């Protein structure tokens, strides 16, 4: 704006100066008169006023330039401060991300260690359960073999044989309890004479396929344990005769151990008149 005002002032000065010079040339003969001197004085005063206006415009322009320079310096200062704050913020975020990454690695390591401990405990418990199941199956097979080798008699044929069978069942239950509890089985007088030789049985398996037995002899056992166990193979067929136990003996044993409710006497259907 100041530039336009300065240009407008210079334009007016040039035009008025041309008119004044033309007037002086035209009125040469009137020099020294009051009217001539008054007009010349008026023009000189106007020139002084123009010079003042020029100075004012230059001062305003310089002031505006200083203000613009000050504003530019302030803007640059603010920009530098903003860049510095952004740099510090990025550094803080980078440090925080690094701390979070280290904390996440530590948590992952702790979780992995806890998981490994839980897996070891689980495998130890699972292995103990397999060993206990193997012992129970071996005892069950042994006791079943002992029972199946004895002749089966009907309870009504001889009361003495019923008492012998009952004693045999009690001895079998006592032997199973002692084996499971880890105690040494004591020799007791048995009422039977025949006893087949005890055979070493394989670990308990389920029927599935014909893959080899997976145990501590397998190279994968040391690294993975039971987690790498394949599907079980079917057990070898038994050569022992399959003779079901007497039904009355099973019922009597279950009743004494209070595992079933004794049936009540049959009540006849009332006769309707």
Automatic annotation (TrEMBL):
InterPro entries: Spectrin_YLPM1-like (IPR058903). Residues 5-69 form the YLPM1-like spectrin repeat domain. Residues 190-205 have a biased composition (Low complexity). Residues 55-96, 190-212 are annotated as: Disordered. It comes from the Eukaryota. This is YLPM1-like spectrin repeat domain-containing protein. It comes from Mesorhabditis belari.
């Amino acid at each position: 704006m100041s530039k336009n005002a300065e240009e407008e002032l210079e334009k007016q000065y040039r035009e008025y100066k041309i008119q004044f010079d033309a007037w002086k040339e035209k009125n040469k003969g009137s020099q020294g008169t009051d009217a001539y001197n008054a007009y010349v004085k008026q023009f000189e005063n106007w020139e002084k006023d123009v010079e003042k206006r020029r100075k004012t415009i230059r001062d305003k322009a310089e002031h505006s330039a200083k203000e613009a320079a000050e504003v530019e310096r302030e803007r640059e200062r603010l920009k530098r401060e903003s860049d510095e704050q952004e740099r510090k913020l990025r550094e803080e975020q980078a440090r925080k991300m690094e701390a979070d990454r280290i904390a996440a690695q530590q948590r992952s390591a702790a979780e992995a260690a806890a998981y490994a401990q839980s897996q070891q405990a689980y495998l130890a418990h699972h292995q103990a359960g397999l060993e206990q199941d193997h012992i129970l199956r071996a005892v069950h097979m042994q006791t079943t073999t002992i029972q199946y080798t004895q002749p089966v008699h009907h309870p009504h044929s001889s009361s003495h044989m019923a008492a012998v069978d009952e004693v045999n069942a009690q001895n079998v239950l006592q032997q199973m309890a002692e084996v499971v509890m880890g105690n040494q089985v004591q020799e007791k007088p048995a009422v039977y004479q025949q006893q087949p030789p005890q055979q070493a049985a394989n670990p308990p398996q389920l029927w599935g396929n014909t893959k080899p037995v997976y145990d501590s002899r397998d190279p994968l056992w040391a690294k993975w344990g039971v987690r790498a166990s394949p599907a079980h193979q079917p057990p070898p067929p038994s050569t022992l005769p399959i003779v079901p136990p007497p039904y009355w003996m099973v019922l009597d044993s279950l009743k004494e151990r209070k595992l079933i409710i004794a049936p009540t006497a049959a009540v006849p259907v009332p006769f309707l008149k």
